[in-house]
Q: What sequence folds into this?
C-alpha cells in the first residue's frame, strides 16, 4: 500500500478519550504495535491489536462496525495503515490518537507496562482495600512439609499449571473455585491456599472464596510461583492433577446449592444485571451498542454444547484478560453458564471493574444446543496463487531464487519451520523485502496459511515479483512428511511479536521476576494518577 492511498483520519485527543472513558461511552483504543513494544508502554485501557493481525481479530474483538475506534503507535508509522485497514474492513468511525503515544504522554496521560494492566491494577486495588490474606512461599512450604491440613489450588489456566506448579497443588482455574472448593476441601478446618504465577489471579481467587463465605481459612500464595522461585524453592513440572479428577459435587447437592446461593449474593452486592433470552434477543438487534456474549465454563464444556452466538471465555481468564477479550471499553457483557455459580462470580468482578455486565438466567439444557467451535467470521483474503508443498520443495532445491517468508508466531517458528524459511512480521514487510532483494519469487506461509493469505496482498503491492501462498501452510508441509528445522535460523524480523512474561516458563531471570513484582506493587498509585478506571471494591 502506498501513502497516496491513505485516507485522512480525524484525531481524538487524550482529553477527549479520558472524558469518554469517564462517561462510559463505547471506545476501542487500539495499540497496533507488536506485543513486546506495547507491553513496554501504553494507556491503561489500550488493547493490543497488531497491524499484521487486524483481519484475523478485528471482527471478533470489535463486533460493531460503527464503534468509535482510536488507533495509535509510538512513531513507527503503523497507525495510519492500521486505520486504513480498519476502514477497508467496514469500520466507519476510525480515528488516530492525536500525537500518538507521545501525545498521550505529553498531555499528562498515565503510562502502564506489561499486558492485562487493567486487571492487574484492579487486583492490587482489591488487595489494598480488602486486605486479602496471604502467606509467603516459605510459610506455605512449611505447611506442606509438615503435612498440615491444607489444599493448594492453582487458579491459572491448566496449561500454565502443567508447565510449572506448586508441589501437590491441584488445577482449579479461577471461575471454578467457588463451584469446586467444597468438594476439594470438605472439612471447614482445611486451609485453602490459592496460587497463580504472580499476584492477580491468586488475589481474585482467594477473595472470591472469601466473598462467597466458605467456612475454611483462605490465603493467597503471596507472589505465586514467582515468589516460590525467588525463595529458592523447587516447582513441579508436568503435573496433571485437575479438579475433575477429584470428587465434584453434582448439581442439586448441598454443596452446589450453597455455591449457587452465595455466588448470587455476591453478584447482587456488586450490582450485576440479570437478563433472560428475550432481553438478549433485543440487545442482539440493537445497532448502537456492543454486546459481548461469553460462556464462562471450561473450554471442554463449551465445545460439548453452548448457546448460539456465545464465545468461550473461561471466567478466570476473562477477568484477567478483559483488555484482550473485550477491547471495546463501555460495551455490555452478557455471561452464561449451566450451574448458577461461575457466571455470577465472574460477573461480580467485571461489575467492580466498571463494566455493564448481566448474567443470563432461566437457561435450560436444550439451550446449549450448539457444539464445537463456530467458524470465525473473517474478511476475504486478496486473490493469490497457491503452491503445493511438493512444488515448493522442488523450488527450494533448485536454487536461491525462491524466498520463503514465514508469518507464524516467532515461538512457533523457532519450534519448527521449513528449512530456509525466514521469520517475518507483516508489520515490517517493507524492510523484510529489502533484505530479500534479488528474489525471483516469494512464497508465503504460516501454520495454516491464513495469515499468509492476507500478507500476499501486501507483498503484491510492494514487489513486482510473483507471489505464492503455500497451500495448507506449514501444517500441509508437515503432513506431507517433508523435512523441518528449528531454532532462530533466519530472522528477517525481530522477535517482538510476543512480550516475554516474567511469570511464564521456567527460565526467567531473577531480576525480571522481582521487577515485575515491584511494578505490580505500584499499580494502585498508578490507578489513582490515571483517574479513568471507574473501579470499585465490594
A:
Amino acid at each position: 500500500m502506498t501513502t497516496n492511498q491513505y485516507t485522512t483520519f480525524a484525531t481524538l485527543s487524550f482529553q477527549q478519550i479520558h472524558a469518554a472513558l469517564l462517561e462510559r461511552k463505547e471506545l476501542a483504543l487500539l495499540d497496533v504495535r507488536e506485543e513486546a513494544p506495547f507491553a513496554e508502554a501504553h494507556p491503561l485501557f489500550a488493547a493490543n491489536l497488531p497491524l499484521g493481525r487486524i483481519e484475523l481479530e478485528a471482527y471478533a474483538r470489535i463486533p460493531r462496525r460503527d464503534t468509535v475506534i482510536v488507533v495509535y503507535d509510538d512513531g513507527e508509522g503503523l497507525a495510519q495503515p492500521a486505520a486504513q485497514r480498519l476502514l477497508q474492513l467496514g469500520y466507519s468511525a476510525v480515528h488516530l490518537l492525536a500525537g500518538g503515544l507521545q501525545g498521550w504522554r505529553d498531555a499528562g496521560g498515565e503510562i502502564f507496562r506489561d499486558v492485562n494492566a487493567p486487571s492487574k491494577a484492579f487486583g492490587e486495588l482489591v488487595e489494598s482495600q480488602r486486605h486479602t490474606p496471604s502467606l509467603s512461599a516459605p510459610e506455605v512450604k512449611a505447611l506442606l512439609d509438615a503435612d498440615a491440613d491444607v489444599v493448594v489450588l492453582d487458579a491459572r489456566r491448566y496449561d500454565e499449571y502443567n508447565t510449572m506448579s506448586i508441589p501437590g497443588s491441584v488445577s482449579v482455574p479461577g471461575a471454578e473455585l467457588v463451584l469446586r472448593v467444597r468438594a476439594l476441601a470438605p472439612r471447614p478446618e482445611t486451609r485453602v491456599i490459592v496460587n497463580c504465577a504472580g499476584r492477580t489471579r491468586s488475589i481474585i481467587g482467594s477473595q472470591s472464596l472469601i466473598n462467597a463465605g466458605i467456612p475454611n481459612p483462605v490465603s493467597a500464595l503471596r507472589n505465586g510461583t514467582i515468589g516460590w522461585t525467588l525463595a529458592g524453592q523447587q516447582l513441579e513440572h508436568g503435573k496433571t492433577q485437575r479438579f475433575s479428577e477429584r470428587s465434584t459435587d453434582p448439581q442439586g447437592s448441598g454443596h452446589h446449592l450453597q455455591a449457587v446461593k452465595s455466588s448470587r449474593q455476591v453478584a447482587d452486592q456488586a450490582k450485576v444485571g440479570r437478563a433472560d433470552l428475550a432481553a438478549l434477543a433485543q440487545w442482539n438487534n440493537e445497532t448502537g451498542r456492543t454486546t459481548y456474549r461469553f460462556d464462562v465454563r471450561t473450554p471442554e464444556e463449551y465445545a460439548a454444547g453452548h448457546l448460539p452466538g456465545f464465545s468461550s471465555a473461561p471466567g478466570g481468564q476473562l477477568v484477567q484478560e478483559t483488555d484482550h477479550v473485550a477491547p471495546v471499553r463501555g460495551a455490555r457483557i452478557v455471561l452464561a453458564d449451566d450451574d448458577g455459580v461461575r457466571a455470577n462470580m465472574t460477573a461480580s468482578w467485571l461489575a467492580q471493574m466498571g463494566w455493564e455486565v448481566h448474567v443470563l438466567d432461566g437457561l435450560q439444557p436444550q439451550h446449549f444446543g450448539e457444539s464445537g467451535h463456530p467458524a470465525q467470521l473473517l474478511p476475504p483474503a486478496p486473490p493469490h496463487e497457491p503452491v503445493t508443498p511438493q512444488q515448493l520443495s522442488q523450488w527450494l532445491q533448485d536454487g536461491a531464487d525462491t524466498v520463503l517468508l514465514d508469518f507464524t508466531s516467532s515461538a512457533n517458528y523457532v519450534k519448527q519451520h521449513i528449512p530456509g524459511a525466514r521469520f517475518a512480521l507483516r508489520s515490517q514487510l517493507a524492510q523484510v523485502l529489502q533484505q530479500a532483494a534479488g528474489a525471483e519469487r516469494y512464497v508465503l506461509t504460516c501454520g495454516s496459511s491464513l495469515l499468509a493469505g492476507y500478507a500476499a496482498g501486501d507483498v503484491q503491492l510492494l514487489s513486482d515479483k510473483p507471489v505464492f501462498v503455500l497451500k495448507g501452510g506449514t501444517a500441509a508441509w508437515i503432513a506431507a512428511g517433508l523435512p523441518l528445522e528449528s531454532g532462530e535460523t533466519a530472522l528477517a524480523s525481530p522477535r517482538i511479536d510476543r512480550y516475554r512474561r516474567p511469570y511464564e516458563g521456567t527460565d526467567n531471570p531473577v531480576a525480571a521476576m522481582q521487577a515485575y513484582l515491584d511494578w505490580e506493587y505500584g499499580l494502585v498509585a498508578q490507578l489513582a494518577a490515571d483517574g479513568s478506571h471507574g473501579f470499585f471494591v465490594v
